Amino acid sequence: MTLKQDRTETGQRSAPPDHTPRLRLKPKAPHSGHVDGAWWPRSDDLAAELPDLLAVLSVRLGRIDRVLYNLNEWAKSLPKLATGGRLVRLDGYLRQPTNTIEVLGLTGGRIALLVVPPYTDADLAHEAMMTAAAPNDTSMVGNLLAIGAQEQQGPNTCYHPTFRRRVRRFAS
């Protein structure tokens, strides 16, 4: 007879994601660096993107309580999201660091993620995600997203990516 293992703190299993999120996390270990990994959403619709991400992160955090995000980087969203059988608070702030989200667990756990803009070139996104998830990486968010940007834009160009700029660039 095998024992069932429950990975959440509350004794309830979380539903598996409908679509596997493009996510890389650092190994579960003492905190290192500015982020705990990277996430590459498929759109700027936070309410559509979060359920699958939160289903995966709940394995590490248990029940999810809140998500903190930068208001300027996502399409308008409701203040709460029903996912995993409960409501999760979505708190948008203008001062939330750009290209990041923080996912807070009900028991106090926290995961900070680099958010790679959805329309980023696949090779650049992959490189940024792998670097952000490296166990000893301490790169700042702006540096992680600038990987390969100098070759793409020229050596004297200042690169500060955000969703809105990336969308405008690729929509033209």
Instruction: Give the DSSP E fraction (strand runs of 2 or more residues).
Output: 15-25%
Question: In terms of structural class, how would the helical and strand content be classed?
Answer: alpha/beta
How far is the first residue's CA from the last residue's CA?
Answer: 60 Å
Question: What Rg do the Cα atoms give?
Answer: 17 Å
Q: What series of H and E elements makes up the topology?
A: EEHEEEEEHHHH
Number of helices: 5
Short descriptors:
172 residues; alpha/beta; 7-stranded mixed beta sheet; 27% helix; globular; disordered C terminus
Can you offer a commentary on this structure?
This protein is of the alpha/beta class and about 170 residues long. The chain has one domain (about 25-170). The protein has 5 helices and 7 strands; from the N terminus they run ββαβββββαααα. It has helices spanning about 45-60, 120-130, 140-145, 150-155, 165-170, and strands at about 25, 35-40, 65-70, 80-85, 85-95, 100-105, 110-115. Strands 1-2-7-6-3-5-4 form a 7-stranded mixed sheet. Strand 6 (about 100-105) and strand 7 form a beta hairpin. The longest helix is centred in the first third of the chain and has 16 residues, at about 45-60. The radius of gyration is 17 Å and the shape is globular. The model is unreliable at about 1-10 and about 150-170 (pLDDT under 50).
